[in-house]
Amino acid sequence: MENAGGPTVVFIAGEGRSGSTVLDRCIGSIDRAASFNEMHEIVHQFQRNQKRCSCGALPQGCYFWREVFADQILLAALPELIDGFERYDGSRQTLRLLAGAYGRSDRVRLRRYGMLTAHLYRRIAQVAGVSVIVDSSKNPSRALILKRYARLDVWCLHLVRNPVSVAESWRRSKGAMDDNLPTYTQVQTYKRWMLKNLVCEALQARVPYRRVPFETFTEAPRDSLRDIKQWVPALRGKQDGFATTSEIDFGPFHSLQGNPDRFENGRVEIRTSSSRPLANSGMTPIQIWFASRYGYSR
Ligand SMILES: [Zn+2]
Question: Which of 41, 64, 125, 136 could disulfide-link to 257, CB 3.0 to 4.6 Å?
Fold first, then answer.
């Protein structure tokens, strides 16, 4: 049974640097929806109070998060939420979560963590005045926790991007304001890209699932968003922020963790991300075969 009164969560799963910030904010532009980027980090970042919210304030100085955590149950549950996150919410936990392979004490703890997480999402939706939340935490483990233990109405978009573009992006350092992202070599990225996407595919068995190639999305972003709105019942028939077929208005929002692009607001043009050839990219034959299943050509 789904959590009564809980918001609908559009969850973006996939490898980092696949364009999730853009997709996240496009969905967040829809009426009665709001995006918060990588939501698995909210509690940590609020408690640490070192990295800025995308509105420019420190988390504990941001009026939005102050209001969210004015809820005494949540405030008291911060240590438990952090503990649950550290125990269960990471890539390494995904297969265990998929199988539900936990002993009794873990199951009790997971149920409690799920209940508190549902409380957090309900509170965020209430303060934001929305009924749909966009969470681009990307780790499949999070989608499973939201669905199975928080019992929220979760809709998963598996965002896939051409691995050559992803590897190129991870090679460059990227930092702005308070976000500094690590760099990875091509070989490291190709390995992670395949594993992460493979595990994301496994979500199909547990959550309503739809695959979105980033290149297809950027080719016709307004039409692609219309398809997503049609797919998620809570978004059907709602207005969105597109001003033209490729330009969209991003309003200020409150994200505590994500790509440095989260600090940009105003009218943004979504540029087409073209697909790159896989041959001579340094990928192994198995990786090339795997990527070609998503329609990327050699
Ligand atoms: Zn803020």
Answer: 41
